[in-house]
## 1
Amino acid sequence: MTESDLLLSAIVYESIVIIIALIILALILKKYLEKRHQFTLILFVIFTFYLLTLIFSCASKIISFSRAYDYVNDVEAVDPLTIESFIVLRIVDYRSSFVFMALASAFTYVLRVKLFEESYKPLEKWFVIMFGGFTIIYQVFVYIKGNDFIEILSFILIAIYVFAINIPFMSQCRKNYKAVDNPTFKKGFLSLTLMSFFVSQILIFQLLDRFAKIFLVEVYPYGFSPFYYIGMLCALMGYFGAYFGYIRPRSSN
């Protein structure tokens, strides 16, 4: 398959994921408006940011597929350093998606504190604010077209931030799942555990897809290995897990 064929298939695939995610997000909003649960509102915000992550990921592929910008499709082309190129290149290189993923992770920390803590711990709070702020600023402003080192560091920063927030959250949810006897609460904590797990897998499978592009270049010269498709599926599984395991049962009580 040509690069255009792969891009088109990825656009169709991500569009389907986005439509399903949008439907689930609408159902989450509906449940919040019915019951006004604070936790449901926080989850709605989290998944809104994850939806924007998916939308800008799809937008990246649409821009590349359209071939509307020479400085995007031509590897040797120089960044013209215009406002347009500033926006377009950050979409194409997934910087915009990483910003929304960082914001989703920050609100995941808020959810964790609301669920399991009496108040914010100063060290954790400042890590979430300062490191998160630095990560977002880096994604937006530290950019040189074609500089692999800067791009690798961009990925490392968002990965550290996502894992540093989601792993403790997943661990706490798993602990509470084992500790409670109420079937509704057990189902809720299990679904939040799975949500955190699947969110973390998105970055892992994205990394594996990049490795496939580097080390299996003859098979996947443009990326889009099975790891890419599994990563997108993990995003959708995170939505399903949170809605059917936590929001829907909780909102019906």
## 2
Amino acid sequence: MFTLLALGTVMLIVGVMIAVMAVVATALKLTFKIVLLPLKLLFIPLLVIGFAVKIVLLFAAGIVVAALAIPIIILMALLAIPFAIAAAVS
């Protein structure tokens, strides 16, 4: 009988320890969220600026690609005109 009582006591102590660890983990998580919130608020404008720079660079790269592609397309059209005339005549 004493063995069962001791086992029950050990299980109760383990259960309380697990509950205490869960409460401590939750408290630490909340503490980190509260402590790191000002840092997050400081970095949000930097992230917005970085995102804006990224969009501008991608837009500029697209313009460069278009600026290089248009003369090549015109040159290809000029080179194809004699072949199109020859195909139309024959």
